């Protein structure tokens, strides 16, 4: 399942599903706002159900919007009922470094049997702990790591080694794509999945020299 689409835009999801090249979708509140979702939690529910149905049986990540432990657990339980293929994104910790989140992750995976995607992570050590807590997916934000002046490839290699060595179940998702090149480079470094924006996925397909070559074939076909 190497490529997920990082969007809440239905037309984009439909386009790449029809091509058969995506194996899941990731969202977060910022992505949903950019994808014109309005109407509060009802709007989120409506869009999530629509996407989940469109990509079934592939997974869709929907993020909790609550930062208190009970609130996170309640939302995770509620959102996971919207469709069978929905998994729940929970950030590694709160905005002030609150430590409740991994406990919620552990509880949701083990007591409630809900698949969790631990998100907003910037290092292999965060991913490792999220993985030990039982997360099904661990999301490292590659572009943000690189923008801080570190090479996320080092983090990808380390977390893949740890997951394999300790036989942990988590799949590594690298998000925060910034360049077309990121997708293949991050997969080659050991990521199980790269979640990519529609614009960059399109950029992976189209090449100027392919355009020129195709034009040559079309022009020559007329001369036959
Ligand atoms: C990953 O799951 C996130 O949705 C996303 O890739 C974050 O990317 P950003 O750094 O562009 O916000």
Overview of the structural elements:
With 224 residues, this protein is an alpha/beta fold. It has a single domain, classed as Aldolase class I (TIM Barrel). It is 52% helix and 16% strand. An eight-stranded parallel β-barrel has the order 1-2-3-4-5-6-7-8, surrounded by seven helices. Helix 1 packs parallel to helix 3 and helix 6 packs parallel to helix 8. The longest helix is centred in the N-terminal third of the chain and has 16 residues. It is globular. The model has no long low-confidence stretch (mean pLDDT 97). Bound molecules: erythose-4-phosphate (E4P). Erythose-4-phosphate binds next to helix 2, strand 6 and helix 7. The site of erythose-4-phosphate has 13 residues, from helix 2, strand 6 and helix 7.
Observed structural traits:
single chain; 224 residues; alpha/beta; TIM Barrel; eight-stranded parallel beta barrel; 11 helices; 8 strands; 52% helix; binds erythose-4-phosphate
The description of the largest β-sheet is:
8 strands, parallel, barrel
Overall radius of gyration:
19 Å
CATH class: Alpha Beta
- Rounded to the nearest angstrom, the distance between the terminal CA atoms is 43 Å
Number of helices: 11
CATH architecture tag? Alpha-Beta Barrel
The helix/strand class is alpha/beta
Distinct small molecules bound, one entry per kind: erythose-4-phosphate
